[in-house]
Amino acid sequence: MSDAASPESSPVAREEALLAEARSQGSAATLKAWVRLSGPGWLQSAITLGGGSLASALYLGVLTGTHFLWVQVFAMALGVIALGAISWVTLTTGENPFRTLREKVSPVLAWSWLVAVMMANIVWALPQFSLAAGVVEQNLLPEWKGNGLTVATCAIVLALALPVVLAYGRSSSGVRTVELILRALVGAVVLAFFGVVIAIASQGEGLSLGSVLGGLVPDLSLLAEPAPAYAADLAAARFPELWTGLIVRTQQEVLIAAAATAVGINMTFLMPCSLLRRGWNRGFRGLAVFDLATGLLIPFVLATGCVVLASADRFHGQADQALVTDIDAALAKGTYLERLDLAVAEGFAGDADGYARHTLKGAGFQALTYPQKQERVGLVMNLVSEPDRRLAAMLEKRDAGALARALEPLTGSAISHVVFGLGVLAMAVSTVIVLMLISGLAFAEAARQQPGGRAFRWGAFAAGLGALGPFVWTGDARAWLAVPTSNIGMMLLPLAYWSFVLLLNSRRVMGEQRPAGRARLLWNAALIPTALIVTFASGWTVWMKLGSLGLGLLGGLALAIVASLRR
Protein backbone atom coordinates (compact mmCIF):
# COMPACT_ATOMS: atom_id res chain seq x y z
CA MET A 1 0.00 0.00 0.00
CA SER A 2 1.35 3.42 -0.89
CA ASP A 3 1.86 6.17 1.63
CA ALA A 4 -0.96 8.16 0.07
CA ALA A 5 -3.39 5.36 0.90
CA SER A 6 -1.92 4.35 4.24
CA PRO A 7 -4.04 5.23 7.29
CA GLU A 8 -0.87 6.03 9.20
CA SER A 9 -0.07 8.76 6.67
CA SER A 10 -3.47 10.50 6.94
CA PRO A 11 -3.49 14.01 8.42
CA VAL A 12 -5.47 12.98 11.50
CA ALA A 13 -3.13 10.04 12.15
CA ARG A 14 -0.14 12.36 12.00
CA GLU A 15 -1.90 14.78 14.34
CA GLU A 16 -2.66 11.98 16.79
CA ALA A 17 0.97 10.92 16.72
CA LEU A 18 2.10 14.51 17.27
CA LEU A 19 -0.23 14.88 20.27
CA ALA A 20 0.86 11.57 21.77
CA GLU A 21 4.52 12.53 21.48
CA ALA A 22 3.84 16.00 22.94
CA ARG A 23 1.96 14.57 25.92
CA SER A 24 4.88 12.29 26.69
CA GLN A 25 7.14 15.36 26.83
CA GLY A 26 5.04 17.37 29.27
CA SER A 27 2.67 20.34 29.42
CA ALA A 28 4.84 22.81 27.52
CA ALA A 29 5.20 20.46 24.55
CA THR A 30 1.46 19.70 24.63
CA LEU A 31 0.61 23.40 24.60
CA LYS A 32 2.94 23.96 21.65
CA ALA A 33 1.28 21.09 19.76
CA TRP A 34 -2.17 22.48 20.48
CA VAL A 35 -1.18 25.86 19.07
CA ARG A 36 0.17 24.19 15.94
CA LEU A 37 -2.93 22.03 15.37
CA SER A 38 -5.63 24.60 16.17
CA GLY A 39 -7.99 25.54 13.36
CA PRO A 40 -11.78 25.10 13.82
CA GLY A 41 -11.84 27.91 16.39
CA TRP A 42 -10.42 30.29 13.79
CA LEU A 43 -13.36 29.49 11.52
CA GLN A 44 -15.62 30.69 14.31
CA SER A 45 -13.54 33.86 14.63
CA ALA A 46 -13.85 34.53 10.92
CA ILE A 47 -17.64 34.47 11.03
CA THR A 48 -18.17 36.38 14.26
CA LEU A 49 -15.73 39.12 13.23
CA GLY A 50 -18.08 40.50 10.59
CA GLY A 51 -20.13 43.58 9.91
CA GLY A 52 -22.40 42.95 12.89
CA SER A 53 -19.50 42.76 15.34
CA LEU A 54 -17.98 45.91 13.86
CA ALA A 55 -21.24 47.86 14.12
CA SER A 56 -22.00 46.71 17.67
CA ALA A 57 -18.45 47.42 18.87
CA LEU A 58 -18.55 50.88 17.30
CA TYR A 59 -21.84 51.69 19.02
CA LEU A 60 -20.69 50.28 22.35
CA GLY A 61 -17.87 52.81 22.28
CA VAL A 62 -20.08 55.66 21.09
CA LEU A 63 -22.73 55.03 23.71
CA THR A 64 -20.85 53.99 26.84
CA GLY A 65 -17.17 54.69 26.22
CA THR A 66 -15.10 52.02 27.92
CA HIS A 67 -17.75 51.19 30.53
CA PHE A 68 -19.11 48.23 28.52
CA LEU A 69 -15.73 46.90 27.44
CA TRP A 70 -16.38 43.83 29.61
CA VAL A 71 -19.48 42.93 27.58
CA GLN A 72 -17.48 41.56 24.65
CA VAL A 73 -15.38 39.38 26.95
CA PHE A 74 -18.43 38.13 28.86
CA ALA A 75 -20.54 37.50 25.77
CA MET A 76 -17.88 35.52 23.95
CA ALA A 77 -17.00 33.56 27.11
CA LEU A 78 -20.62 32.36 27.15
CA GLY A 79 -20.29 31.37 23.52
CA VAL A 80 -17.07 29.46 24.14
CA ILE A 81 -18.76 27.51 26.94
CA ALA A 82 -21.65 26.49 24.68
CA LEU A 83 -19.42 25.65 21.72
CA GLY A 84 -17.06 23.76 24.03
CA ALA A 85 -19.96 21.64 25.25
CA ILE A 86 -21.19 20.77 21.76
CA SER A 87 -17.58 20.06 20.71
CA TRP A 88 -17.24 17.63 23.62
CA VAL A 89 -20.46 15.86 22.58
CA THR A 90 -19.47 15.74 18.91
CA LEU A 91 -15.99 14.33 19.52
CA THR A 92 -17.36 11.79 21.98
CA THR A 93 -20.11 10.45 19.72
CA GLY A 94 -18.30 11.00 16.41
CA GLU A 95 -21.61 12.13 14.94
CA ASN A 96 -23.05 15.44 13.79
CA PRO A 97 -25.33 16.79 16.58
CA PHE A 98 -28.05 17.46 14.00
CA ARG A 99 -28.31 13.72 13.39
CA THR A 100 -28.13 12.98 17.09
CA LEU A 101 -30.93 15.44 17.82
CA ARG A 102 -33.03 14.17 14.90
CA GLU A 103 -32.70 10.49 15.77
CA LYS A 104 -32.38 10.48 19.57
CA VAL A 105 -33.89 13.70 20.95
CA SER A 106 -36.40 15.62 18.80
CA PRO A 107 -36.71 15.81 15.01
CA VAL A 108 -38.63 19.09 15.31
CA LEU A 109 -35.77 20.66 17.26
CA ALA A 110 -33.19 19.29 14.82
CA TRP A 111 -34.93 20.55 11.69
CA SER A 112 -35.82 23.91 13.26
CA TRP A 113 -32.15 24.39 14.10
CA LEU A 114 -31.00 23.46 10.59
CA VAL A 115 -33.60 25.61 8.78
CA ALA A 116 -32.75 28.62 10.93
CA VAL A 117 -29.06 28.11 10.12
CA MET A 118 -29.77 27.92 6.38
CA MET A 119 -31.88 31.08 6.42
CA ALA A 120 -29.41 32.97 8.58
CA ASN A 121 -26.46 32.25 6.28
CA ILE A 122 -28.23 33.43 3.15
CA VAL A 123 -29.64 36.61 4.69
CA TRP A 124 -26.59 37.57 6.78
CA ALA A 125 -24.36 37.31 3.71
CA LEU A 126 -26.13 40.33 2.19
CA PRO A 127 -24.69 43.05 4.47
CA GLN A 128 -21.18 41.57 4.26
CA PHE A 129 -20.97 42.33 0.54
CA SER A 130 -22.43 45.77 1.22
CA LEU A 131 -19.78 46.30 3.90
CA ALA A 132 -17.01 45.31 1.49
CA ALA A 133 -18.34 47.61 -1.22
CA GLY A 134 -18.77 50.47 1.24
CA VAL A 135 -15.27 50.23 2.70
CA VAL A 136 -13.65 50.09 -0.76
CA GLU A 137 -15.58 53.20 -1.83
CA GLN A 138 -15.13 55.17 1.41
CA ASN A 139 -11.67 54.14 2.56
CA LEU A 140 -9.59 52.42 -0.09
CA LEU A 141 -10.65 53.97 -3.43
CA PRO A 142 -12.62 57.12 -2.51
CA GLU A 143 -11.84 58.75 -5.85
CA TRP A 144 -13.73 55.98 -7.68
CA LYS A 145 -17.51 56.18 -7.53
CA GLY A 146 -20.52 54.50 -9.06
CA ASN A 147 -22.05 51.07 -9.49
CA GLY A 148 -19.04 49.87 -11.48
CA LEU A 149 -16.86 49.88 -8.37
CA THR A 150 -19.56 48.10 -6.36
CA VAL A 151 -19.95 45.42 -9.04
CA ALA A 152 -16.19 44.92 -9.22
CA THR A 153 -15.85 44.68 -5.44
CA CYS A 154 -18.65 42.12 -5.05
CA ALA A 155 -17.31 40.09 -7.97
CA ILE A 156 -13.79 40.05 -6.52
CA VAL A 157 -15.01 39.05 -3.05
CA LEU A 158 -17.09 36.24 -4.56
CA ALA A 159 -14.19 35.13 -6.77
CA LEU A 160 -11.91 34.99 -3.71
CA ALA A 161 -14.43 33.19 -1.52
CA LEU A 162 -15.81 30.51 -3.84
CA PRO A 163 -12.58 28.57 -4.54
CA VAL A 164 -11.73 28.60 -0.83
CA VAL A 165 -15.15 27.19 0.09
CA LEU A 166 -15.03 24.50 -2.60
CA ALA A 167 -11.52 23.51 -1.48
CA TYR A 168 -12.87 22.95 2.04
CA GLY A 169 -15.43 20.50 0.68
CA ARG A 170 -13.01 18.50 -1.46
CA SER A 171 -10.47 17.02 0.95
CA SER A 172 -8.95 17.05 4.42
CA SER A 173 -5.94 18.93 3.10
CA GLY A 174 -8.35 21.54 1.73
CA VAL A 175 -9.88 21.85 5.20
CA ARG A 176 -6.50 22.67 6.73
CA THR A 177 -5.60 25.09 3.93
CA VAL A 178 -8.85 27.02 4.39
CA GLU A 179 -8.25 27.22 8.13
CA LEU A 180 -4.80 28.71 7.50
CA ILE A 181 -6.23 31.28 5.07
CA LEU A 182 -8.88 32.33 7.57
CA ARG A 183 -6.35 32.47 10.38
CA ALA A 184 -4.35 34.93 8.27
CA LEU A 185 -7.44 37.05 7.56
CA VAL A 186 -8.44 37.13 11.23
CA GLY A 187 -4.88 38.07 12.12
CA ALA A 188 -5.03 40.95 9.63
CA VAL A 189 -8.24 42.21 11.25
CA VAL A 190 -6.73 42.11 14.74
CA LEU A 191 -3.48 43.79 13.65
CA ALA A 192 -5.30 46.57 11.78
CA PHE A 193 -7.48 47.46 14.75
CA PHE A 194 -4.64 47.03 17.20
CA GLY A 195 -2.65 49.52 15.13
CA VAL A 196 -5.49 52.01 15.46
CA VAL A 197 -5.38 51.78 19.25
CA ILE A 198 -1.59 52.13 19.27
CA ALA A 199 -1.96 55.32 17.21
CA ILE A 200 -4.42 56.68 19.77
CA ALA A 201 -2.27 55.68 22.76
CA SER A 202 0.82 57.29 21.20
CA GLN A 203 -0.80 60.70 21.50
CA GLY A 204 -0.78 60.49 25.29
CA GLU A 205 -4.31 61.87 25.54
CA GLY A 206 -7.84 60.50 25.61
CA LEU A 207 -8.04 56.97 26.94
CA SER A 208 -6.15 56.08 30.10
CA LEU A 209 -5.01 52.68 31.28
CA GLY A 210 -7.24 53.08 34.32
CA SER A 211 -10.36 53.62 32.19
CA VAL A 212 -9.51 50.60 30.03
CA LEU A 213 -8.94 48.29 33.00
CA GLY A 214 -12.03 49.70 34.73
CA GLY A 215 -14.09 48.90 31.63
CA LEU A 216 -13.22 45.23 31.99
CA VAL A 217 -14.98 45.11 35.38
CA PRO A 218 -18.77 44.60 34.98
CA ASP A 219 -20.72 47.70 35.95
CA LEU A 220 -24.44 46.93 35.95
CA SER A 221 -25.33 50.42 37.17
CA LEU A 222 -25.49 51.49 33.52
CA LEU A 223 -28.60 49.35 33.16
CA ALA A 224 -30.39 51.96 35.25
CA GLU A 225 -28.51 55.23 34.65
CA PRO A 226 -26.68 56.98 31.79
CA ALA A 227 -22.91 56.85 31.41
CA PRO A 228 -21.13 59.71 33.26
CA ALA A 229 -20.18 61.51 30.02
CA TYR A 230 -23.80 62.64 29.57
CA ALA A 231 -24.05 64.25 33.02
CA ALA A 232 -23.17 67.85 32.09
CA ASP A 233 -25.58 68.06 29.14
CA LEU A 234 -28.32 66.26 31.07
CA ALA A 235 -28.01 68.84 33.84
CA ALA A 236 -28.41 71.68 31.34
CA ALA A 237 -31.08 70.04 29.14
CA ARG A 238 -34.68 71.15 29.11
CA PHE A 239 -35.92 67.53 28.99
CA PRO A 240 -33.45 65.52 31.13
CA GLU A 241 -35.95 62.76 31.93
CA LEU A 242 -36.61 62.16 28.23
CA TRP A 243 -32.93 61.75 27.41
CA THR A 244 -32.17 59.76 30.55
CA GLY A 245 -34.86 57.22 29.66
CA LEU A 246 -33.72 57.02 26.04
CA ILE A 247 -30.03 56.60 26.93
CA VAL A 248 -30.75 53.94 29.56
CA ARG A 249 -33.01 51.94 27.21
CA THR A 250 -30.39 52.10 24.48
CA GLN A 251 -27.66 50.97 26.88
CA GLN A 252 -29.82 48.03 27.92
CA GLU A 253 -30.44 47.08 24.30
CA VAL A 254 -26.74 47.21 23.46
CA LEU A 255 -25.75 45.05 26.42
CA ILE A 256 -28.45 42.43 25.84
CA ALA A 257 -27.80 42.30 22.09
CA ALA A 258 -24.06 41.86 22.55
CA ALA A 259 -24.52 39.11 25.13
CA ALA A 260 -27.12 37.29 23.04
CA THR A 261 -25.59 37.48 19.57
CA ALA A 262 -21.84 37.01 20.07
CA VAL A 263 -22.41 33.40 19.03
CA GLY A 264 -25.07 33.15 16.34
CA ILE A 265 -27.10 30.06 15.65
CA ASN A 266 -25.08 29.29 12.51
CA MET A 267 -21.90 29.13 14.62
CA THR A 268 -23.42 26.37 16.75
CA PHE A 269 -23.81 24.35 13.54
CA LEU A 270 -20.37 25.13 12.14
CA MET A 271 -18.28 24.03 15.12
CA PRO A 272 -19.25 20.33 15.15
CA CYS A 273 -19.11 20.16 11.35
CA SER A 274 -15.60 21.61 11.27
CA LEU A 275 -14.43 19.16 13.95
CA LEU A 276 -15.77 16.20 11.98
CA ARG A 277 -14.24 17.53 8.75
CA ARG A 278 -10.91 17.60 10.58
CA GLY A 279 -11.36 13.92 11.45
CA TRP A 280 -10.87 14.60 15.15
CA ASN A 281 -12.04 12.12 17.78
CA ARG A 282 -12.19 11.76 21.58
CA GLY A 283 -8.46 12.28 21.91
CA PHE A 284 -8.85 15.83 20.59
CA ARG A 285 -11.45 17.06 23.12
CA GLY A 286 -8.99 19.07 25.17
CA LEU A 287 -7.51 20.57 22.01
CA ALA A 288 -10.99 21.58 20.79
CA VAL A 289 -11.68 23.60 23.95
CA PHE A 290 -8.21 25.18 23.78
CA ASP A 291 -8.79 25.99 20.11
CA LEU A 292 -11.98 27.86 20.96
CA ALA A 293 -10.22 29.90 23.64
CA THR A 294 -7.27 30.87 21.45
CA GLY A 295 -8.83 30.90 17.99
CA LEU A 296 -12.19 32.45 18.87
CA LEU A 297 -12.16 34.16 22.26
CA ILE A 298 -8.81 35.96 22.08
CA PRO A 299 -9.04 37.34 18.50
CA PHE A 300 -12.66 38.39 19.00
CA VAL A 301 -11.97 40.18 22.28
CA LEU A 302 -8.86 41.90 20.88
CA ALA A 303 -10.47 43.04 17.63
CA THR A 304 -13.79 44.21 19.05
CA GLY A 305 -12.09 45.66 22.13
CA CYS A 306 -9.83 47.77 19.92
CA VAL A 307 -12.83 49.05 17.95
CA VAL A 308 -14.62 49.92 21.21
CA LEU A 309 -11.55 51.80 22.47
CA ALA A 310 -11.09 53.73 19.23
CA SER A 311 -14.80 54.58 19.05
CA ALA A 312 -14.87 55.62 22.70
CA ASP A 313 -11.87 57.91 22.25
CA ARG A 314 -13.23 59.56 19.12
CA PHE A 315 -16.99 59.72 19.76
CA HIS A 316 -18.15 59.03 23.33
CA GLY A 317 -19.70 62.07 24.95
CA GLN A 318 -18.99 64.12 21.82
CA ALA A 319 -21.69 65.50 19.57
CA ASP A 320 -21.27 66.11 15.86
CA GLN A 321 -21.45 69.89 15.94
CA ALA A 322 -22.80 70.00 12.40
CA LEU A 323 -25.93 68.16 13.56
CA VAL A 324 -26.35 70.55 16.46
CA THR A 325 -26.14 73.76 14.41
CA ASP A 326 -26.53 73.03 10.68
CA ILE A 327 -30.03 72.54 9.27
CA ASP A 328 -28.93 70.62 6.15
CA ALA A 329 -26.75 68.26 8.19
CA ALA A 330 -29.69 67.60 10.51
CA LEU A 331 -32.00 66.95 7.56
CA ALA A 332 -29.64 64.27 6.27
CA LYS A 333 -29.94 62.24 9.51
CA GLY A 334 -33.36 60.68 9.93
CA THR A 335 -32.53 59.19 13.33
CA TYR A 336 -31.42 62.59 14.61
CA LEU A 337 -34.68 64.15 13.40
CA GLU A 338 -36.62 61.42 15.20
CA ARG A 339 -34.89 62.34 18.46
CA LEU A 340 -35.59 66.03 17.93
CA ASP A 341 -39.22 65.11 17.33
CA LEU A 342 -39.31 63.37 20.71
CA ALA A 343 -38.21 66.63 22.29
CA VAL A 344 -40.87 68.55 20.34
CA ALA A 345 -43.53 66.11 21.53
CA GLU A 346 -42.31 66.59 25.10
CA GLY A 347 -42.39 70.36 24.76
CA PHE A 348 -45.90 70.41 23.27
CA ALA A 349 -47.33 67.83 25.67
CA GLY A 350 -51.08 68.46 25.82
CA ASP A 351 -50.94 70.82 22.82
CA ALA A 352 -51.83 68.64 19.84
CA ASP A 353 -52.11 71.57 17.43
CA GLY A 354 -48.69 72.92 18.44
CA TYR A 355 -47.10 69.52 17.96
CA ALA A 356 -48.79 69.07 14.55
CA ARG A 357 -47.29 72.38 13.38
CA HIS A 358 -43.74 71.39 14.31
CA THR A 359 -43.50 67.62 14.04
CA LEU A 360 -40.60 66.25 11.99
CA LYS A 361 -42.11 62.86 11.30
CA GLY A 362 -45.11 61.45 9.50
CA ALA A 363 -46.68 62.02 6.10
CA GLY A 364 -47.19 65.72 6.72
CA PHE A 365 -43.48 66.42 7.05
CA GLN A 366 -42.54 64.10 4.18
CA ALA A 367 -44.96 65.91 1.85
CA LEU A 368 -43.14 69.23 2.32
CA THR A 369 -40.73 70.56 -0.27
CA TYR A 370 -37.05 70.67 0.69
CA PRO A 371 -37.08 74.42 1.45
CA GLN A 372 -40.19 73.89 3.58
CA LYS A 373 -38.43 71.06 5.43
CA GLN A 374 -35.44 73.34 6.01
CA GLU A 375 -37.73 75.98 7.48
CA ARG A 376 -39.50 73.46 9.72
CA VAL A 377 -36.23 71.96 10.99
CA GLY A 378 -34.86 75.48 11.64
CA LEU A 379 -37.92 76.31 13.76
CA VAL A 380 -37.58 73.06 15.71
CA MET A 381 -33.87 73.58 16.34
CA ASN A 382 -34.69 76.99 17.78
CA LEU A 383 -37.36 75.43 19.99
CA VAL A 384 -35.05 72.70 21.31
CA SER A 385 -32.21 73.86 23.53
CA GLU A 386 -28.60 73.27 22.51
CA PRO A 387 -27.93 70.75 25.33
CA ASP A 388 -30.96 68.76 24.15
CA ARG A 389 -29.70 68.88 20.56
CA ARG A 390 -26.25 67.81 21.72
CA LEU A 391 -27.69 64.81 23.56
CA ALA A 392 -29.66 63.83 20.46
CA ALA A 393 -26.47 64.06 18.39
CA MET A 394 -24.39 62.07 20.90
CA LEU A 395 -26.63 59.04 20.34
CA GLU A 396 -25.91 58.88 16.59
CA LYS A 397 -24.33 55.66 15.41
CA ARG A 398 -21.11 55.91 13.41
CA ASP A 399 -19.84 53.68 10.62
CA ALA A 400 -16.35 52.53 9.68
CA GLY A 401 -15.88 55.52 7.39
CA ALA A 402 -16.70 57.95 10.20
CA LEU A 403 -14.18 56.31 12.51
CA ALA A 404 -11.47 56.36 9.83
CA ARG A 405 -12.10 60.08 9.25
CA ALA A 406 -11.97 60.71 12.99
CA LEU A 407 -8.55 59.06 13.13
CA GLU A 408 -7.05 61.26 10.41
CA PRO A 409 -5.51 63.77 12.86
CA LEU A 410 -3.58 60.90 14.47
CA THR A 411 -2.40 58.91 11.47
CA GLY A 412 -2.91 61.08 8.44
CA SER A 413 -5.69 60.72 5.91
CA ALA A 414 -4.12 58.04 3.73
CA ILE A 415 -2.83 55.82 6.52
CA SER A 416 -5.99 55.88 8.63
CA HIS A 417 -8.24 55.04 5.70
CA VAL A 418 -6.02 52.34 4.23
CA VAL A 419 -5.19 50.55 7.50
CA PHE A 420 -8.72 50.68 8.85
CA GLY A 421 -10.18 49.91 5.43
CA LEU A 422 -8.04 46.81 4.96
CA GLY A 423 -9.04 45.56 8.40
CA VAL A 424 -12.74 45.98 7.63
CA LEU A 425 -12.32 44.43 4.17
CA ALA A 426 -10.61 41.39 5.71
CA MET A 427 -13.59 41.16 8.09
CA ALA A 428 -16.06 41.13 5.21
CA VAL A 429 -14.15 38.63 3.06
CA SER A 430 -13.54 36.14 5.89
CA THR A 431 -17.18 36.33 6.96
CA VAL A 432 -18.43 35.75 3.41
CA ILE A 433 -16.20 32.68 3.11
CA VAL A 434 -17.49 31.13 6.32
CA LEU A 435 -21.16 31.98 5.64
CA MET A 436 -20.91 30.27 2.26
CA LEU A 437 -19.14 27.36 3.91
CA ILE A 438 -21.79 26.90 6.60
CA SER A 439 -24.54 27.19 4.01
CA GLY A 440 -22.91 24.42 1.97
CA LEU A 441 -22.52 22.19 5.02
CA ALA A 442 -26.15 22.77 6.06
CA PHE A 443 -27.49 21.95 2.59
CA ALA A 444 -25.33 18.83 2.48
CA GLU A 445 -26.60 17.68 5.87
CA ALA A 446 -30.21 18.30 4.88
CA ALA A 447 -29.70 16.21 1.71
CA ARG A 448 -27.76 13.55 3.67
CA GLN A 449 -24.74 14.05 1.43
CA GLN A 450 -21.06 14.45 2.20
CA PRO A 451 -19.47 17.94 1.95
CA GLY A 452 -18.16 18.64 -1.53
CA GLY A 453 -21.14 17.15 -3.36
CA ARG A 454 -23.91 18.81 -5.32
CA ALA A 455 -25.92 19.89 -2.26
CA PHE A 456 -22.81 21.43 -0.71
CA ARG A 457 -22.11 23.47 -3.85
CA TRP A 458 -25.71 24.62 -4.15
CA GLY A 459 -25.68 25.71 -0.53
CA ALA A 460 -22.48 27.70 -1.04
CA PHE A 461 -23.95 29.35 -4.15
CA ALA A 462 -27.13 30.23 -2.21
CA ALA A 463 -25.17 32.23 0.35
CA GLY A 464 -23.08 33.69 -2.48
CA LEU A 465 -26.25 35.38 -3.73
CA GLY A 466 -25.47 37.91 -1.03
CA ALA A 467 -23.34 39.56 -3.74
CA LEU A 468 -26.64 40.93 -5.07
CA GLY A 469 -27.27 42.64 -1.74
CA PRO A 470 -25.98 46.11 -2.65
CA PHE A 471 -28.20 46.14 -5.77
CA VAL A 472 -31.40 44.21 -5.00
CA TRP A 473 -32.02 44.09 -1.27
CA THR A 474 -31.88 47.74 -0.32
CA GLY A 475 -33.76 49.97 2.09
CA ASP A 476 -36.97 48.54 3.48
CA ALA A 477 -36.71 45.28 1.47
CA ARG A 478 -33.46 44.27 3.12
CA ALA A 479 -34.74 45.24 6.56
CA TRP A 480 -37.92 43.20 6.05
CA LEU A 481 -35.91 40.12 5.12
CA ALA A 482 -33.33 40.42 7.88
CA VAL A 483 -35.67 41.10 10.79
CA PRO A 484 -37.76 37.89 10.70
CA THR A 485 -34.68 35.76 10.01
CA SER A 486 -32.76 37.28 12.92
CA ASN A 487 -35.75 36.87 15.19
CA ILE A 488 -36.18 33.21 14.20
CA GLY A 489 -32.49 32.58 14.87
CA MET A 490 -32.72 34.30 18.22
CA MET A 491 -35.80 32.32 19.20
CA LEU A 492 -34.07 29.04 18.44
CA LEU A 493 -30.70 29.87 19.98
CA PRO A 494 -31.67 29.03 23.60
CA LEU A 495 -33.33 25.83 22.37
CA ALA A 496 -30.00 24.86 20.82
CA TYR A 497 -28.19 25.69 24.08
CA TRP A 498 -30.61 23.62 26.16
CA SER A 499 -30.28 20.76 23.70
CA PHE A 500 -26.52 20.89 24.36
CA VAL A 501 -27.27 20.56 28.08
CA LEU A 502 -29.46 17.53 27.40
CA LEU A 503 -26.94 15.91 25.05
CA LEU A 504 -24.02 16.40 27.42
CA ASN A 505 -25.92 14.79 30.29
CA SER A 506 -27.57 12.00 28.30
CA ARG A 507 -26.26 8.50 28.89
CA ARG A 508 -28.27 7.40 25.87
CA VAL A 509 -26.22 9.74 23.67
CA MET A 510 -22.85 9.80 25.42
CA GLY A 511 -22.81 6.27 26.81
CA GLU A 512 -19.92 5.56 29.17
CA GLN A 513 -18.20 8.74 27.98
CA ARG A 514 -20.78 10.98 29.66
CA PRO A 515 -18.93 13.36 32.01
CA ALA A 516 -19.02 12.13 35.60
CA GLY A 517 -18.11 13.42 39.00
CA ARG A 518 -16.22 16.70 39.11
CA ALA A 519 -16.08 17.02 35.30
CA ARG A 520 -19.86 16.77 35.02
CA LEU A 521 -20.34 19.27 37.84
CA LEU A 522 -18.01 21.79 36.19
CA TRP A 523 -19.59 21.43 32.75
CA ASN A 524 -23.10 21.94 34.12
CA ALA A 525 -22.03 24.79 36.41
CA ALA A 526 -20.77 26.62 33.32
CA LEU A 527 -23.32 25.53 30.69
CA ILE A 528 -26.63 25.80 32.57
CA PRO A 529 -26.15 29.46 33.66
CA THR A 530 -25.06 30.21 30.08
CA ALA A 531 -28.27 28.68 28.74
CA LEU A 532 -30.31 30.64 31.31
CA ILE A 533 -28.67 33.95 30.33
CA VAL A 534 -29.21 33.31 26.62
CA THR A 535 -32.82 32.29 27.31
CA PHE A 536 -33.47 35.55 29.14
CA ALA A 537 -31.81 37.59 26.40
CA SER A 538 -33.74 35.71 23.73
CA GLY A 539 -37.09 36.14 25.50
CA TRP A 540 -36.42 39.85 25.99
CA THR A 541 -35.50 40.28 22.32
CA VAL A 542 -38.52 38.33 21.08
CA TRP A 543 -40.83 40.37 23.31
CA MET A 544 -39.32 43.68 22.14
CA LYS A 545 -39.35 42.78 18.42
CA LEU A 546 -42.42 40.56 18.05
CA GLY A 547 -44.40 41.08 21.25
CA SER A 548 -46.98 38.52 22.31
CA LEU A 549 -46.98 37.02 18.80
CA GLY A 550 -43.30 36.13 19.16
CA LEU A 551 -43.78 34.58 22.57
CA GLY A 552 -46.74 32.64 21.22
CA LEU A 553 -44.68 31.29 18.33
CA LEU A 554 -41.90 30.38 20.73
CA GLY A 555 -44.36 28.60 23.01
CA GLY A 556 -45.88 26.73 20.07
CA LEU A 557 -42.46 25.60 18.90
CA ALA A 558 -41.59 24.43 22.43
CA LEU A 559 -44.79 22.38 22.58
CA ALA A 560 -44.02 20.84 19.18
CA ILE A 561 -40.53 19.91 20.38
CA VAL A 562 -41.88 18.34 23.58
CA ALA A 563 -44.43 16.37 21.57
CA SER A 564 -41.69 15.06 19.27
CA LEU A 565 -39.26 14.04 22.00
CA ARG A 566 -37.96 10.51 21.59
CA ARG A 567 -39.22 8.28 24.35
Quick description:
With 567 residues, the protein is mainly alpha-helical. It has helices at 11-25, 27-37, 40-48, 51-64, 69-93, 97-105, 107-140, 147-170, 172-201, 209-215, 231-236, 240-261, 265-278, 285-315, 321-325, 327-331, 334-347, 352-358, 363-366, 370-383, 386-394, 400-406, 408-411, 413-446, 454-464, 475-505, 507-510, 517-563. The longest helix is centred in the C-terminal third of the chain and has 47 residues, at 517-563.
What does this structure look like?
It contains 28 helices and no strands. It is an all-alpha fold. It has 2 domains: 342 residues, Orthogonal Bundle (Hydantoin permease); 75 residues, no CATH class. Helix 5 packs across helix 26.
Q: By CATH's scheme, which homologous superfamily of the largest domain applies? A: Hydantoin permease
Q: Uncertain runs with pLDDT below 50, 5 residues or more?
A: 1-7
Question: Over the alpha carbons, how many angstroms does the gyration radius reach?
Answer: 25 Å
Q: How much helix, percentage-wise, in residues?
A: over 70%
Count of helix runs: 28
Instruction: Give the DSSP E fraction (strand runs of 2 or more residues).
Output: under 5%
Using the 3D structure, state the CATH architecture of the largest domain: Orthogonal Bundle
Count of all domains: 2
User: Separation of termini?
Assistant: 47 Å
CATH C-level name of the largest domain: Mainly Alpha
Task: Write down the overall geometry.
Answer: globular
Question: Helices and strands in order, then pairings?
Answer:
Layout: H1 11-25, H2 27-37, H3 40-48, H4 51-64, H5 69-93, H6 97-105, H7 107-140, H8 147-170, H9 172-201, H10 209-215, H11 231-236, H12 240-261, H13 265-278, H14 285-315, H15 321-325, H16 327-331, H17 334-347, H18 352-358, H19 363-366, H20 370-383, H21 386-394, H22 400-406, H23 408-411, H24 413-446, H25 454-464, H26 475-505, H27 507-510, H28 517-563
